[in-house]
Predict the structure.
Amino acid sequence: QVQLVESGGGLVQAGGSLRLSCAASGRTLTGYAMNWFRQAPENEREFVARITWSGGNTDYADSVKGRFTISRDNPKNTVYLQMNSLKVEDTAVYYCAAERPGSYVYWGQGTQVTVSS
């Protein structure tokens, strides 16, 4: 079993930056691709970014390309999401998810990001 805990959320002004972390415990993230999702009030949960186990491949939602960067530190069992040039519409609860082919196996509890104008 893997437990995922997100941190790093908070309140920031538009144009600012935050770095989210997703720390895994219980077992390693060996072999798991990792994802970030977000959910704003009254919206569906949406994909934000993905990184493969090796870190060699990343993918982003069009809405965050060029502003967000996903990375991982496998020895630390941690995944990061660097968010720059934040916009009000980035306000949401951000979740990390561990992925095996075909399914998101583990989810964190989420961390709130609020961007003010």
Remarks:
- The chain has no helices and eleven strands.
- The chain has a mean pLDDT of 96.
- Residues 21 and 68 are 13 Å apart (CA to CA).
- The longest strand covers residues 92-100.
